[in-house]
Amino acid sequence: MARSALLVFLFALVAVLLVPSTVALLAGERLSSPALELPPTPGSPPGGWPGVETPPVPGQPGGRAGAAAAPGEGPSPGAGPAAALPSAESLVSVYDEQAGQLLRMPLETYVAGVVAAEMPAGFALPALEAQAVAARTFAVAQLVAGTARCPLRPEADFCSDGRHGQAWASPAERRRFWGVLAPVYEAKIEQAVQATAGEVLLWRGEPIEAFYSASAGGRTASAREVFGLDLPYLPSRPSPDADRPTPARTTRLPIAKAARALGIDPGQLQPAGGQAGTPMATVVARTPSGRAAEVRVGDRSFSGTDFRQRLGLPSTLIESLAVRGGELVVETRGYGHGVGLSQYGAAAMAQQGDSAQAILAYYYPGTRLAHLPPAPV
After folding, report:
1. Whole-model pTM?
2. b/e per residue 266-288 (b: at least 16 CB within 10 A)
3. Which residues of 173-182 are buried (b: 16+ CB within 10 A; e: fewer)?
4. In angstroms, how far is CA 197 from the centroid of its own chain?
5. Listed residue (96, 119, 149) closest to 35, CA to CA
6. Is the peptide bond preceding residue 20 cis, with omega within 30 degrees of 0?
7. Angstrom distance (rounded) from CA 335 to CA 28
8. What pLDDT tens digit does each residue of the chain (377 aa) get?
9. How far, in Å, CA of 184 to CA of 176, rounded?
């Protein structure tokens, strides 16, 4: 009897420990908080890369000579010489905030940790491969520009915390989160990283600003409308993620809490006379992709990005705003800034049979894939 009770207890304990993680993973969750919220890289305008000390190998893909002669990118008058790319065997330093450790590792090991943290491992392989290329390109662009720096540990190139760049998860963290599925997902991510090892996206011979977000909500935003950057390879275009991961999200905030977040008097949100539905908050201007450019609340105006950040909204793709039942109710689509690759859009394209190359070409049009040069002998 005592043995049976012990077995039941152990079974229940295992279920409590494993089932929530497994259900979350099967539902498409990822390790980090969703949506990469990256501001433009300071000091890295198009054509203005300062370059690094590592010289390119003449004639090699991704090197100065090969990149400048790339077909399909057109001439680059005034852009100056192409950037000197780091070698495929480069080492990078990462500050693991959770462990409080400064780690040094090969670039490809870092990329695997970023893919694990930034995209659900349950996504189809082409989507994971596209994510690996985007993550590697983003990191290489920062290394080339000399802006790869972790504000929490200045001697580190990158932070593990997604609030300071790309999220990164250690092998131990991945095992804890994935549980019994860890061997399967580790092998899958390793396959995606190895299949694209050393591959980066170039525009006119230079690594691009490979922005990405969780879901564009049906249409990506251009770099100009979100970051004010004139980057031709980051235009606004349809994205097959209008209903992914959900068609719409509803955020409800008590009036007092919303007013504090916006720094306004609660009376500016509360309809006079208690008339529910009165439009006390309104989107008065939208960007070309339909995102909120300006939101007016009472006599105050906020940029769409400021309004979203203050209220913690999933995106600026605001469908409706209303005050009901003592709450500010906001309906949004998508998740993240919406610029560049949409992770859920990539997953949809992969399910339709598109390759990683097709996904990257769609979300970063006009760019080309190149390999980082080998290490100098």
Report:
1. 0.78
2. eeebbeeeeeeeeebbebeebbe
3. bbeebbbebb
4. 20
5. 119
6. no
7. 14
8. 456 555 555 545 544 444 444 444 444 455 554 333 333 332 222 222 222 222 222 222 222 222 222 323 332 333 344 568 999 899 999 999 999 999 999 999 999 999 999 999 999 999 999 999 999 999 999 999 999 999 999 999 999 998 889 999 999 999 999 999 999 999 999 999 999 999 999 999 999 999 999 999 999 999 999 999 999 999 999 999 988 888 889 999 999 999 999 999 888 887 655 555 556 789 999 999 999 999 999 889 999 999 999 999 999 999 999 888 889 999 999 999 999 999 999 999 999 999 999 999 999 999 999 999 998 77
9. 14
Amino acid letter, 307: F
